Structure prediction request, 878 residues.
Amino acid sequence: MTDTNKHQNLVLGIDTGGTFTDGVLLDYDSHQVLATQKSLTTKRDFAIGIENVIAGIQIEDPSLIKMVSVSTTLATNAIAEGKGKRVALFLVGYDRELIENFKMAHQFATPFHYYFQGGHNLYGQEKQALDLKGILEKTAQIKHEVDAIAVSSYFSPLNPEHENRAYEAISGVCNLPIVLGHQLSTKLGSVERATTAALNASLLAVLQTFIIAVKRAMEKRKIVAPLMVVRGDGTLMSDEFAARTPVETIHSGPAASAIGGRFLSQIDNAFVVDVGGTTTDLALIMDGAVTISEEGASVGGYATSVKAADLLSIGLGGDSQIRINRDGNIVVGPERVVPLAYLAEQHPIVKSQIRSLIRRTWEQSSPDWLEYWYLIREPGDEDLSKNPKHKQLLQILQNGPHALPDLLKKMSVFHPSQLGAEELLRQEFFGKAGFTPTDLLHCDERFVAWDAETSEMALKAFSHYLFKEPEEVQAMIWQTVTEKILKATIEFLTGQTLPEQEKSSADSWFFKNAATRDHPHLNTNFVLSYPVIGIGGPASMFLQKVSEILHVELVLPNHYQVANAVGAIAGSIMVEEEILIYPKLDRTGLDVLGYYVQTSSKRLEFEELQTALITAKETCREIALNAALRSGADQPQVVVEETSDGLDTYRIRAKAFGNPRLSG
Amino acid sequence: MMDLIGVDTQEAYQLLREQINTLALKPGAAINESELSSIFGLGSTPIREALKLLVHDQLVVVSRQGGLYVADLDPKDLKMLSEVRVGLESQAAGLAAQRATADHLLVMDALVLEQSKIKADDKEAWFDLDHKLHQAIAKASGNHYLAHSLEKYFGLSQRLWYLALPKLEFLSSAVHEHVRLVESIRSGDSQAAEIRMKEHVQGFYLKVQKLIEN
Prediction:
């Protein structure tokens, strides 16, 4: 138990990763980590993992906690897996022919998108009259078929009049939540704005359910404190704000890791690598802040206008499956499995089966025998009745874990794809276990949590199949891991794509030579300008050699294993407001009559540009400041800047930020 | 709201309010906390907190002995409610006739059209659309104080609505009345709009009164 008496400001940070949900209890003033808690992430319902962390965190008096902050991959996953709610997207003033000719319609992230007349031009003038009658007819037609409506009108950031009128009318005839494009983005890209609005609408209910579940878990432990949610750029927003703009939580997990790394190491310029169980995420910290992607985050193949951390995520982690591909090369990831050491600890039969593997003939000892399928939760009767193949599979697994070739034989199929079991896997009825880097760490006694003997035998079996010594194979696997991270690093920092390793070319030779350093006469080197900050349990093993090759120090700050959760509380609260100023033209479009100042809620008119800009700056500062205070920022600072879009159009941007105001 | 009261309390409040307003919990029925707690699968604390809020809404009443019961539908209250709504609703209709924009009228048209297509036994849809049409007129009045007050009294009338709904002839005449009402607003005839709204609302209360007295 933590002695909490000495600490005034306790905060709880939670990060839901692909494998683990981490919680960390921190003294906000001294930056001291007081307790940590890990729980398996429950993909089918993230709230369960979070509840376990909140229930398990070691603290005598939870009511002393003054803030809880969560970073979550919920939105990212829901989009990638198409698990958001059904959304109707109303496109006002969009050129249907143009969008269909350029095959952009699939970008809208919903099959239910409809075109209506209306929209504005580059000078905020009405392009066409708004077809409100058509919008109301369509609403009546679809309102029982969808869960939310998104509206995006052409050039709405310059003039949101049509979006606002559509909102008034639609909300007068139905109770569905309505999302407007101009409230989410002031960027002019019309397709991205529509996509962002549609995605946001599809996530509203998803995030709301999640927030309610977290609050319920807090109530159970009598935690009365503000709840914050991490944005994709690592800043914080209040739960109320997050429930309205769920799309802003895209990439919040990796962003929080980078911020946590900086917070714990106190290094302001660094390359941050977070090695999790499932993925490795790369980000850059410059001047103490995580770098932001200019063009907007892209998720599940959709380009959005959401501001998020610039990052690269690769399918490589402690629990990545180690396999041999068709060309006989060792591959690590991207599939994530449960380490064999863990499975054998739960099911001793696995241990004896793997032991017998070494004594078999070469054909009968392929690494396929190191992949196990096992039951995670008992299926209910209705789960079994749907599909006879699924029923047979789950019934076999009810008798215990099965090695893949054994299972295929019992199911009388040749290839796992014939089982069609992806949905059962996703629903976590069964899981896969296999040979992983975590097993290698068990062999070396670098990390021993479960049955190390099984890991050693698995390595022997794997090596046996390759006709090599275990030490040599181990070195080869780590080299594969190192090269994979190195390749990702270079591609992330340069924006260039390196050729596949099998192909021989000058750049792949250069890369390979820098990675292996084995040419007798010529050295090639990569030299990184900043240290590498390692985050996550496997970081020390995965990144030591990478940083050597990059000629920099590997910094592993205290508590680097849970820096992701620290990052969830280390960010500041930020609110950004943008105002557009553009000329008011006469009917001929030649003479400038004055300037419009378009805020998110109203439009003002001025004769002189200077007065327009001054008013815009004052208004912008005030809106941002009030929103930051409302979001729970303590004495927020405001920075106002002016940029030009060309065409006599200007943007005033105010950022208000401050530390979260703690309760009590 | 989400921060001021617990999420379970909020859920209990919404569920109970819905039960009372749709007459699933009958007027005058005694309330048993532990029974409600087991029906809704919520703890006794959120149920108790929710009941406090409902007492404040005047939908739940505390007896002299300290027991709780669902507020009765009292003919006297009904009369008072009718007086207030007849006055305010017709004022709103009169103002709407002067101020309604083309957008407002499109919304009213859409609602009346939808109403004409509803299945007779879809009680929720009937209530919802009638509510929305009255909201649309209140909005078109351009006076948000008026709209706010109307919203409150409409809410108090919800139980009466559910009481009147089984009388089918009332529904078809209501659609007819709505059509004429919207027409007079469109033509800008304040006086006609006021009179039609007055008749419409008064007619509703007279029907409910008969039902209660029987």
